[in-house]
Amino acid sequence: MTYVSRHKDTKALSTQSALRVFVSLWLMTAAAGWIVVFSVRAFSHETLTTTVLFDREIVRILNKHCVMCHTENGPSFPLETYEQTWLQGRKIRAETIARHMPPWAAVPGYGQFVNDNSLTLRETQFIISWVEGLGPRNSGTVFTNVVDSSGKPRTAVRAQADFGRWQLGQPDLTRDLNAETIDPGQPKQVRYSIIDLGLTAERRIRGVEYMPSDRRVVRAAFFTIQETGQWIGSWTPWHGFMELPAGVAIRLPAGSHIRAEIHYQSFKDRVVERGTLGLFFADKAATTTTADLVIEAKPDAAGNRYRAELRLAADMRAVALRPEIPPGVKSIEVSARKVDGGTDVLLFAKDFAADWPTPYIFKDPALVRRGTVLSVTSYGGPVKLTVSRY
Ligand code: HEC
After folding, report:
1. CA neighbor of 175 nearest in space, from 188, 160, 149, 193
2. If you measure from the C-alpha of residue 347 to the centroid of ligand 1, how many angstroms do you get, rounded to a whole number?
3. 282 shares a domain with 298
4. Is the CB–ligand 1 distance for residue 240 below 6 Å?
5. pLDDT tens digit at each of 390 positions of the chain
6. Where does a domain end: 234, 258, 289?
7. Cβ(213) – ligand 1 distance below 6 Å
8. 342 and 278, same structural domain?
């Protein structure tokens, strides 16, 4: 009775009762806050039932697909420790679902490539489950953002980048490229350098590998023989070499020079970058040699479409494809129309990450019969395709 009658008496809200209303509203909000906190806690406890653990599944995914870029002294922020990864959880989930990360434009289900760095469906699901399950480190430990004061060094499981060594073993011949200076903030750019191999006689090689000296600034590298224009190898952060099947070799004529095309990214500091090219000699039995086929798509009658075809005069096996994709290209399809009428799609790629040009290196160089028509179709711009084949 008291409250209502007093209220009636004063007709209007007194300062005192206004204060009372304010306080009770505040208390209600605070209580609601606690309810939210409690329900989140209860909820988080439930969802911790994810069986995906950082120390087990996630660290393997990072090792296999991410740390070649996401590392100290790499092109992007590190995703090596539990804490680093936990703090990026939501973004990692979003970027991997959208297939922005890792960068890889080939649509699964067509050609199979040794340098395919995309996540499998299962790996993507592990990431989603881990992030949505609040990212447990191992059996039930979650990130608390509290510094451990025990002073004991903890041996934490972490992802580890594996570079700084030759993947194909010690090369038979190494050559340093020209030193390139990247000035602070200069736009991304492509630089060329010509390397004299000093060969007095013809040599055959079975593999080409590259090691940049500063991975923070190099996005991609392509190597061709200056004299013949033949493409012999390339480098991306996730796959630094090209190796031919047994019995197959690249012929380097005496006096050959290598033309290196290095794609640099913009960087905040001044960097002097000087990579090393490694060549691996083939043994005597490697008598089959490679050559290139080049197909350049031209504007087609249908507006935005570009296309070119080439009929094979002899049987071949394709080692790798190198599409040169100008900005604006939406998709590219490389297919082989066989004499019997069937068509194999060798590569279908779309949503290119312009910063990460890559070749597509076949897992098994398949036999393509003579008479087959190879075609390149692109939308949004003309693509030049180099096919390394034997
Ligand atoms: C080829 C190099 C490369 C690989 C491989 C790669 N990333 Fe990235 N990632 C980058 C670069 C470069 C950026 C741009 C961020 C920056 O400016 O540092 C980036 C950005 C991101 C971002 C932040 C996006 C944003 O909106 O800020 C996330 C999250 C990410 N990567 C997760 C991953 C995960 C997870 C993997 C592995 C499954 C992966 N990346 C593999 C190079 C790479």
Report:
1. 193
2. 24
3. no
4. no
5. 334 334 434 444 444 555 454 545 454 555 444 444 444 444 444 556 789 999 999 999 999 999 999 999 999 999 999 999 999 999 999 999 999 999 999 999 999 999 999 999 999 999 999 999 999 998 755 555 555 666 655 678 999 988 889 999 999 999 999 999 999 999 999 999 999 999 999 999 999 999 999 999 999 999 999 999 999 999 999 999 999 999 999 999 999 999 999 999 999 999 999 999 999 999 999 999 999 999 999 998 777 999 999 999 999 999 999 999 999 999 999 999 999 999 999 999 999 988 999 999 999 998 999 999 999 999 999 999 999 999
6. 289
7. no
8. no
219 touches ligand 1 (CB under 6 Å): no
Whole-number Å distance, alpha carbon 89 to ligand 1 midpoint, is: 12
Q: Is residue 38 part of a domain?
A: yes
Atom of ligand 1 nearest to the CA of 123: 38
Indicate if 217 and 312 belong to the same structural domain. Answer: no
- Whose C-alpha lies nearest to ligand 1, atom 13? 76
Q: Chain centroid to CA 388: how far?
A: 22
Tell me, using a 6 A CB cutoff, whether residue 103 lines ligand 1. Answer: yes
Residue 33 lies in domain: 15-47
Q: Which two tokens stand for residue 68?
A: 């070649």
* 322 plus 263 within the same structural domain: no
Residue 159: inside a domain:
no
Looking at the 3D structure of the chain, how many domains does it have? 4
Let me know how long the chain is.
Answer: 390
158 found inside a domain: no
Q: How far is CA 176 from CA 95, 222, 236, 285, in A?
A: 36, 15, 18, 29
**Which residue out of 76, 234, 235 has the highest number of ligand 1 atoms within 8 Å of its CB and is therefore the one to mutate?**
76
Q: Is the CB of 171 under 6 A from ligand 1?
A: no
pTM assigned to the model: 0.85
Q: Are residues 125 and 181 in the same domain?
A: no
Closest by Cα among 233, 216, 220 to 71:
216
State which of 61, 63, 66, 216 you would mutate to test the pocket of ligand 1, scoring each by most atoms of that ligand within 8 A of its C-beta. Answer: 66
Which of the listed residues 57, 64, 68, 70 should we mutate to test ligand 1's pocket, taking the one with most ligand atoms within 8 A of CB? 70
Task: Specify if 343 maps to a domain.
Answer: yes
CATH number of the domain enclosing 375: 2.60.120.230
* Same-domain status, 217 and 236: yes
Is the peptide bond between 102 and the residue preceding it cis, with omega within 30 degrees of 0? yes
Residue 356 Cβ contacting ligand 1 at under 6 Å = yes
List of residues 6+ apart from 375 with CB closer than 8 A: 295, 307, 308, 309, 310, 333, 334, 335, 336, 337
- Do both 382 and 314 map to the same domain? yes
The b-or-e profile of 161-178 (16+ CB within 10 A means b, else e) is bebeebebeebeeebebe
